[in-house]
UniProtKB/TrEMBL annotation:
Keywords: Cell membrane, Membrane, Transmembrane, Transmembrane helix. It is found in: Cell membrane. This is MFS transporter. Residues 1-397 form the Major facilitator superfamily (MFS) profile domain. It comes from Streptomyces poriferorum. It holds the Pfam family MFS_1. Residues 398-459 are annotated as: Disordered. Its main location: membrane. InterPro entries: MFS (IPR011701), MFS_dom (IPR020846), MFS_trans_sf (IPR036259). It comes from the Bacteria.
Amino acid sequence: MKSAGILRTNPDFRRYWLSSTLSTLGSQLSLLAFPLLVLSIGGSAAQAGTVATCSMVTRTLLRLPAGQFADRLDRRMIMVGTDLVRLVALASIPLASGLGELGQTHLLCVAIVEGAATALFSPAATIAVRDVVPEKDLTDALSRSQTAMASSSLIGPFLGGWLFTLDPILPFAVDAASYGVSALLLLRMGTLPSQKVPDTERDNRLTAGLRWLTHQRALLAALLFAAGINIVSAAAQTTMVVSLRQSGAGGTAIGAVMACAGIGGLLGAAAAPWLIKRNPAGRMFLLIGTVWALGLAVFSATTQPWVIGPVLVVVVFFSPPAGIVVGRAILVLAPRDLLGRVSTATGLLMAGLASAGPVMAGAFVDSMGGSRTWLILAGAAAVVTVVSSVPLLRETSLDATGDAGNDNDGANDRGDSDTALPSERPAGEPHPEQAAPDGTEPVGLIPAPPAPRQGTGGS
C-alpha cells in the first residue's frame, strides 16, 4: 500500500479520519460560540471562563482513569459511546433554549459532561489509530490527521462566529450533529481486540503509564523538548495578543496575525512526511527549536503585524513534524497493554506544563514589557532545544526515516476492500509491539499521540 494513498486504500483509517475531521470542525464551531452564548444569556466574563475551566479540569482529572479503561475495554465501543454522550449533551442546548430553560447551570453541566466524555474518547482513539494503520504508514496517517485538525482550527472559529450571528444556538446544533455522524462512521471501523495479558504480568495501576515513561531515556528527552516548546508556545500566544494590542493594533490586525499560525500549522502538517523521512528525530528537534528561538527573537524587535505574520508562519510551520515524530514513536514502541495509560500520562504532563504558559507570559509582560518577554521566551526555547535535542542526535529509536517496512503490525494492507480487521490472532503469536525481532522488549520510545478532537471548552 502506498502511503500517499492511505485515505483511498485504507477504509478503516478513512472512516476514523472522516469521523475525527467532522467532529473536530464541529467542536471548533462551538469553541468560540460557547463563551459568546454564556454572555448572551446574561452571564459575566468570569462565568464564561468558569464553564471553560470546568471542562478542562474534568478532562485533566479523568486522563489517567481514561487510559486504563482504553487499555482494558473495547476501544470502538468507548469511542461510539462517548460520541453519543456528547451528542446528547450538546443537543440539550438547542432543546433547552427552545423550551426557554437555558441557563448558566445547564451550560456548566454540559461542559462537565462533554469534558468527561472527551477524556474517555481520546486514549481509545489513540489505540484505534494504531489498530488500523500499519507502522510504515503512521507518519502519513498522523500527518493527514494534523492537516485536518489545522484546517478545522483555522476555519472553525470564523465559521462558528458567522453561524452564531445567524442564530446563537446554531453552532451547537451543528456540533451535536457532527458527533452523530462520527459515531456512525466509527461503528463501521474495524479494531483489534484488547490484548490478553496474564494477570500475573498485567500492571493495573493508574500510574503504570507514568512509571513506564520514566524508564525511557529517549522518550524523556523528546518529552522535555515537546513540553518546553508547548510552554513557550502557550506563553507566546498571550504575549502576541497583549503586545500587539498595547502597540495600537486593532482586532482585525490581531486576528489576521493569529490566523498566520493556523496557516503555518496547515502547511507544516502537509510537509511533515517529507521532512520527517529526511531528518532523524534529533536533527529535526534541533532545527525546530532553532527556528522557534530565532523567530521569537525577531518578535522582540518589532510590533508590525505585516512583519510578525510571515515570521509566525515560518515558526509554526516546523511544529507539526515534532508532534508527528513523538506521536508515531509512542504508537509504535509503547506496549499494547499500556498504550492507553502511556498516551494519557504523556498528555497529562504536556497539558499540565503548558497551562502555566499564559500566566507566566501575562506576569512578564506586566512587569518588564513585551520586548523583554519575547527575549525571555526565545532564551527558554534555545535552552530547551540544547538540553533535549543534542542528546538525541545519536539516538535512532525515535526516527521515522525508514518508514517502508513490514506490514504485519496492527493493521493489514486491505487494498480497496472494506474488510474489517481480523478479530483474532493465532494462539501464542506475540503482537508486533510486544516483542522485538530478536525476542527482546523494544527499548526506545516517545510521547504525545494525536488528539482526535478538542472539547467544547477548548482542549
